[in-house]
Protein 1
Amino acid sequence: MRTPYYLIDKSRLLPNLEKIAWLRENSGAKSLLALKCFATWSVFDLMSDYMDGTTSSSLYEVRLGKEKFAGETHAYSVAYADHEIAEVLEHSDKIIFNSIGQLQKFADASQGHIRGLRVNPGVSTSEFDLADPARPFSRLGEHDPAEIAQVADQISGLMFHNNCENDDFDRFDEMLTLIEDRFGAVIAKMDWISLGGGIHFTGEGYPLDRLAARLKSFATTYGVQVYLEPGEAAITGAATLEVTVLDTMHNGKNLAIVDSSIEAHMLDLIIYREPAKIAPNTGDHEWMICGKSCLAGDIFGEFRFDAPLKAGDRLSFQDAAGYTMVKKNWFNGVKMPSIAIRELDGTVRLVRDFDYDDFAAALS
Ligand SMILES: *Cc1c(COP(=O)(O)O)cnc(C)c1O
């Protein structure tokens, strides 16, 4: 198969899904895949055996969830336009408004639909301002318990999303307690509560049993169905970006240019100024791996290898599923990576290829 391509490995996806299913079994919490993190629908059949549905951040995502992923479909968006609302409702089981203003604006249109409201508890675990829902002046959800209480009779659920790659159960527990202290009275009036995504509960060594117990007691205390909205936790480690070295140079450091671009194919890493990952990253030879776009800083990172790199060598970047495939773009006209799936029996299947026509069709 010709590089570059994203390779989704079902045998690496499965352990995450099994943990998600275990958590539902032991806590009662349902898990919905957050499509903004991962929307490669060719593996949705497998994922839907272990998860309860999808949640979304736009009309197109909610529609994709409805059409491609069995189970429940939650609609959420920071703001809906008038012309979107009918189609959003048609494709969703629940709609979660970001503000009381939007709830009221679409009160008639959404009459009879299950409705919820996003709440901003004002605390989070994000280490990046860019991704911090609790940043100062945040537009992400309503924050005043008194104002939320006034519209409680128009909704049956609330959504809190304030965790971000949080692998510390005690911190999660502490923030949930803050949420209970501040919003407990209105939570008790609801039928369902979504605690959002950002909990890294599929990670190595995460105390899943403690999380399950905490979620179960929360659900019992308030008489609510709990939902989680894992994105990264569902697909972490499940895909790689497969590339080939095209050329090598030396300019104070060993440079290898590959048939891909971090700006075009792993954009999230550039945004957060993080290097890509190569395993095992050991050996005596250090090389800077560079993209083939003409952006000077199109650099995947510096990695160690057992032997000097040369044109034709194959490399594999780890963790290419979350916030990666959804952000690929046509910068520099660099060929978009194909998408391949490694099935549980080891066979690899190409599910999508991109060519010049796709590039041309992306603009006009
Ligand atoms: C981004 C997002 C998620 C998924 O977050 P992860 O960190 O990928 O788990 C879930 N819910 C909402 C509302 C989000 O914005």
Protein 2
Amino acid sequence: MRHDSPTHLTMPKLLGALGLTILVSLTLAKDFLGSLPPQATDLSLSVGSIIENATQEGNSSGCQGYNLQTLQEDEAGLTAKLSLVGESCQAFGEDIVNLTVRVTYETATRLHVNIFDTSDEQYTIPQSVVQRPQQIKDAYRQSSDLVFNYESSPFSFWITRKAHPDATPLFDTRLKSMPPTPIPAVDSSDTYKNTTSLNNLSFVFEKQYLQLTSALPKDTNIYGLGEAVASSGFRRNLTSTVQAMWARDVADPVDENAYGSHPIYLEHRFDSATQTSQSHGVFLLSAAGGDILLRTPPSGNISVIQYRMIGGVLDFYFFSGPSPKAVIEQYGELIGMPTWQPIWGFGFHLCRWGYQNIAETREQVTSMRAANIPLEVMWNDIDLYHAVRDFTSDPVSFPGEEMRQFIRDLASSNQHYIPIVDAAIPKQVNASDLYDPYTKGVAKDVFIKNPDGTEYVGQVWPGYTVFPDWFQNNTQDWWTEALRNWSQAGIEFSGIWLDMNEASSFCDGSCGTDADISNTSVPFILPGEPGNFVTDYPECYNSTVSGPSGNITVNGTLTCHLDTAVSVSLNKRGLGAGKQEGVDLNTPQYAIHNGFGRLSNHALATNATHVDGQVELDTHNLWGLMEEKATHLALKSIQPGKRPFLISRSTFPSSGRWTGHWLGDNFSLWAYLRHSISGVLQFQIFQIPFVGADTCGFVGNTDEELCNRWMQLSAFTPFYRNHNIKGAIPQEPYRWDSVADASRKAIAVRYALLPYWYTLFALSSTSGTPPVRALFFEFPDEPELFDVDSQFLVGSDILVTPVLYPNSTTVQGYFPGHGNVTWRDWYTHEAAKPTSGQKLELQAPLSHINVDVRDGSAILLHAEPAYTIEETRQGPYSLLVSLDFAGKAQGNAYIDDGISNPPGPSRTLTFTASQNQLVINGNGSFSIQQRLQDIFILGVTQVASNFKLNGQAHNATYDATVQKLSFSNVNVDLNGDLTMTWA
Ligand SMILES: *[C@@H]1O[C@H](CO)[C@@H](O)[C@H](O)[C@H]1NC(C)=O
Ligand SMILES: *[C@@H]1O[C@H](CO)[C@@H](O)[C@H](O)[C@H]1NC(C)=O
């Protein structure tokens, strides 16, 4: 397996002579090939020479920063001109002599500090790619929560809160407050001169190297900076984090760069003297490759964050919070709110790589129905394609007309279909090999080019390929037409799955214009094929049987014990640069910590050229975002009036406006079950809230217990899909009785909670409020929660405490609120024993996931969860009210047709309970067809009587053991108001 994979995984015995080859090819699963690229051995050699080159030229010890020349204040902020101090420092190339600092108080909570080259030659992100507010109408300078402070010589700045001018600044680039000792080196391989000299904390602004360092309190809490599977979990490690920003096709590595780049962090500071906290956010709007480091010097009492970017400008935004939720909302206000999801998207999705034909695909639908496990959306991976080409279906195994019928059959049962779309477009092999998307694309000139203007050729699943240039004006229409034609040819999709869009390419850089395009194979063996059977035993099982078929029988002995940490290593270094003259597109001097080494490795070459001369080096991190926007717009055109449903792999700030995300190619390991929670939480910060992991794990063989726990956990994450690699043992939830049982139970809870999920996502799309929350988002003053990522909240009211380790029948979890909040069990309605800062142990037998409801809440539910979202929605509602100590509760529900785009009429219901009275008010013109059938009120401490519904006597029952009052069959019309009383 990968050198950084868990070492305790039991490997099967493999055929002796071929052993080595197979070990390598085992790692080469689809979508993440790059986990050990074919050029792996060469790589270490070239990394050596890169380091050597850096040694020769990297030097920032002489960098003295910039001095302020002029400064002009205005209504909205200020503009300062800076000039380089002394000789150019040449840390990694040419210094930029003249800089401009534009400070704008954009809103009361958002401060914009843009430091750019005065001549405006560095790459900046076009508005068409990431749209942000341009006209700042009002001047917020006076009313801003934040203050920009500066020193002239050398120039430095710091950000404070207006209300706390003397508190430790939120961001502070002054050298004098910096530690006397150098920042510890990144890792043992990080001893070359650039890093040593970069321990110098100077502000550096060069064409291909920008460095800025800010002090952080040593005991602070940092979240975000991704996309990352961090060994530290959701909260980032302040001593060892090196987050490289370079979109990368790799199976979820630990502590390395992955599919998306998100240079945003949320910082949460707790003041132990006052026992209160405040959060703020810092966002660097940059598409450049780079490293963001968190470091804590051994002496001194601060930590630092250091940005090392290899291009672009330093375009910072600061968000004042002061609550964690507010920070995330303020970020959403800047980059745009998440897209509205069609309500069927919340159903259960089933996929795998390796459904070989339409019959096998259909069989899954039938088997799910037979097992009575709700299936909302059936997916196909690239097996669907003819010759692995986008926008096709194989004429033998997935004929178009049969697919049309299959998808229509799904639709008639209120189910949906989603196919994959890969980033790369295959070249035609010869003149008789007609492939319309390619020829039309050539005619419309939509593909990325080499610097000399010839077609850029890469290699992906279909063989040699080209790649859409989203900057080209014709590309949108060409892409929309390709999707439309595909749909008309029978693949009548409801949504689209975008894969490989980092964008990935198997050649190291360009494959060259003389590549033998008749070769349509990939340079490795696919999983499940001879030579690459997925025969690794599920974690926790000893290997006792190893069959050559790749389909192993799991009858080993359970050997797992509580987890050992996944081993972590940074591996290779890469290179990165700018658009203007004097820029090295291929080998920028500063080597960012790209896990694949060279930036062009397993990706497009950094000199691949877009229209207007924009180069891949500057725009690489934007490829996925731009494809997502184009696909979203295409779907809007193909399915007018409906909300586009997209799930995509490579993301960038503002991707949430267009798409949801899955957490990429994970592993069928318990560690990745745990990582999935941090991943979902991280993407709440990134404003791509519709996210989830490949349930039961993608790479490797899963097992019953892991799949059981994972099907339960993912039922409480926004995107809920089981997906498996080709060649591994099947893992659909009906394959094991216990998993089927766990799935039915968890999905029933999920579908009951659908009105709640939907309301949370409406709030997300309108206000940017994160639907899934870390515990401290809701309880920011409880420090024991700052590092908790083994539990999470759905909204503010549903606490999920999943089992994350094998062989467990109990689980421990916090019940936040320090004893002032009553949490009631979802299933039994029993109240948990209040605690203060201590964990409770809960029973957690297989197939049971602990879910608790916060007091003071009122949650609208579907009373009768059904097989599909549509059937569930056709059933009646119920209302679960959970009173707090004061006998109060409050909640609301947003209801609309679940599909219209833009959203049409809606109705928002408000539930308010106090003093033995529950009032339901509604607002909005949407007509709710389904009635409210039952009302449950928890926390009614005394035997109640004299029940009235809108003044009329009504029956109710009272259960003293759980303090529950139940009004059954009230049959209330939710288009009117209601008052219910008890005494
Ligand atoms: C190192 O520098 C030399 C001389 O400039 C250059 O020829 C070589 O390609 C560089 N190597 C790498 C890996 O950047
Ligand atoms: C920097 O700005 C100064 C003052 O405007 C100007 O004289 C000088 O030519 C500029 N230098 C460069 C390298 O642009």
Protein 3
Amino acid sequence: MIVHDAESAVLETPVELLREHTLTPKEYMFVRNNQLLPGALTLAPYPSDSWNLELSGLVMPTRTVSLSEFIRLEQTLTVAVLQCAGNGRAFYARSAMTSGTQWRRGGMAQVSWEGVRLRDLLDSLDLRVSANARFLTAEGHDPAATPADDDYEQSVPLEDVLDTALLATNMNGEPIPAIHGGPLRLVIPGYYGSMNVKWLSRLRFEEDRSSSRHHAQRYRTFRDRIEPGTTPEVTEETTNSTWHQKIKSVIWEPAEEERRFPGPIRVSGVAWNDGRTEIVAAELSTDGGNTWCRVNLETPLSPYGWHPWHATLWYEGNGLLRPGGTVEDLRVRAFDAYGRSQPDYGSVHWNPSGYEWYGVDRVKINLH
Ligand SMILES: Nc1nc2c(c(=O)[nH]1)N[C@H]1C(S)=C(S)[C@@H](COP(=O)(O)O)O[C@H]1N2
Ligand SMILES: [Mo]
């Protein structure tokens, strides 16, 4: 693993490991902690005997649900891509440096989650949510990093997630490892990782969103284009939360600078989005984006999972991947059913914290 911060455990998965597995094993799954829950820096499960989830705010009646109650409710299984909103942040540095962990391609994973859908929880416990509740705010048991700091909590639009959000207790068929938010995690398929609150302790149904710095000031992108290197003020009117994942594709094979010799070169990777619109194609360029050809796109395990894709190029050993092509700059981009794709110049969406990078992926390979 690539260690970005050993103390709080910020770990990135090298693409050489990511590409080996359909479901990312827990040992190779990226980790991101803003704050720490004591005792949770382990892949072992977290003690769950006395774990409770509090439901509060505009819900009638408010109540506490124990983990043993959860396990008796109907369970739903979903495969989803979990991706940090900062994944790919390092690529913004091509125009101007951004602050935060300089993730490249490995701040993401594909795992299966199992738990109780939010809608099923409310229905089976006969809980009614007021029509005034526009936001769902999730709190975890991890305390604020310093007494002066705000606690980590996130809000999402309730209506949008009611049928998809999972109160998850299992990951890849076993209790969620403590480091990944066990024993209970809010999982919102299609949303960026930051919204998937670990060590879930309370869900608030409220008219307004959280005022915590982590929600109101962080994890936001600007609605209008801003000049790389500038830092405009963050307001609710000028920014959006990092909720739905943008359409994205990456090249995992060859990895950057990986050597290739004359003969066939297999090129592969994955493409995914927020799962709300079908991904219909991905294209590869070997000449710096002048011409593109379709790659073979495979079916994902779920709409929220990734589509593996692959292509085979023939490298003659004379410096040309194909007639007229340049040698080492591979690029990939995906398209959804509405024709939406990835910007060739990814920094068109530059923001000071480097969130939501989804520019065309570029990999330089080493031809011998
Ligand atoms: N309670 C809590 N939940 C959290 C965080 C956190 O610091 N505390 N970090 C978030 C961020 S920014 C990401 S990217 C994902 C990372 O999930 P992972 O560590 O399981 O990979 O968890 C999210 N949920
Ligand atoms: Mo994140």
